[in-house]
Design goal:
The protein has helices at about 5-20, 45-50, 65-80, 90-115, 120-135, 150-155, 175-180, 190-195, 195-225, 235-250, and strands at about 165, 165-170, 265-270, 300. With about 300 residues, it is mostly helical. It has three domains: about 1-30 and about 265-304, no CATH class; about 35-80, no CATH class; about 90-255, no CATH class.
């Protein structure tokens, strides 16, 4: 290939590294019409995904003919109905959740991974308490139960009902308020009428994600607050590390995929992407003959 023609490949790589996890800003996707094979109704795909990373999820080898037919019917129904939906920006809401939580989760993980025999365990426990408390702080009902334990503050103490726009708010726990922090307003009757089936799935997905995160942070805060026996510090710190690593593996957010080094100006930080990763390279077919640990972003030079 002529040198000037090869520049096209470099520009393709530059664009792929820039928009790998977000759509281009001038595009607006119709999330209220979204259809997905991750919908729980497609039962034939569940066993093939259980316990596996997303890069190991192969649709074509496991989906049943019945599920393909159901999917096509759903797609046809969505296109024909063309419902307006709520006009809620689902992408922005999802990215807001990631932006709020990703660095906090990674910070705790980095702290716990670095613990060794010379670490000040009292400082580690105090830091975990502070880092887990900060994102939960907006949801804690102060003054509702004086001298409550850390566990009670998050999981048991309920807020007093209030009248908001003529409606009495439920007396919820901090965990519940955290879980529904991104979607609670969608319970308004006028919005419920407008919500499409796709939006109900998106709402449930966000609440499922936040329930897991809020619960894990609640446990870290409760245990680090209520822990008084310093002899138990190593056991709890090890359990917290396992909990956070399990959470990160479950979420698999792309925001944690980053180059360890700062890339030079003639380079971009890029994931191994098709067809570069699996054509004449060391990666093989993901989930089959490849080392999945190799599928990490690296600095790639944009030179001929």
């Amino acid at each position: 290939m002529a040198p000037l023609a090869r520049t096209g490949n470099l520009e393709w790589l530059r664009a792929a590294s820039r928009y790998h996890s977000t759509v281009q800003p001038h595009l607006s996707l119709s999330y209220h019409q979204m259809v997905s094979f991750y919908h729980p109704r497609y039962r034939s795909l569940v066993p093939s995904r259980s316990g596996k990373l997303m890069q190991e999820h192969f649709l074509w080898e496991h989906v049943s003919d019945d599920d393909v037919g159901t999917f096509l019917d759903e797609l046809d129904s969505v296109i024909r109905a063309d419902l307006p939906g709520t006009s809620f920006d689902w992408q922005a809401a999802a990215m807001d959740i990631v932006t709020f939580w990703a660095d906090r989760i990674a910070q705790i993980q980095n702290l716990l991974e670095a613990v060794n025999s010379t670490s000040n365990l009292t400082h580690i426990v105090t830091t975990v308490q502070q880092l887990s408390y900060s994102p939960l702080d907006p949801f804690i009902a102060y003054g509702e139960a004086l001298n409550a334990s850390g566990h009670e503050i998050v999981f048991n103490v309920r807020s007093s009902p209030m009248i908001v726009r003529g409606t009495i708010t439920p007396n919820t726990t901090a965990l519940e308020r955290c879980t529904y922090s991104a979607t609670e307003f969608l319970t308004e009757p006028e919005l419920q009428i407008l919500m499409t089936n796709s939006e109900h799935i998106l709402k449930t997905s966000m609440e499922t994600i936040l329930e897991r995160i809020c619960n894990d942070f609640g446990i870290l805060f409760a245990e680090s607050t209520d822990l008084t026996d310093s002899v138990s510090y190593p056991t709890y710190i090890s359990a917290w590390n396992s909990r956070i690593n399990s959470l990160m593996k479950w979420l698999e957010w792309s925001s944690w995929l980053r180059c360890e080094e700062v890339c030079d100006l003639d380079s971009v930080c890029s994931m191994p992407v098709w067809p570069i990763a699996w054509s004449g390279g060391p990666f093989g077919r993901p989930g089959r003959d490849s080392d999945l640990n190799l599928l990490q972003p690296t600095c790639r030079r944009l030179t001929i």
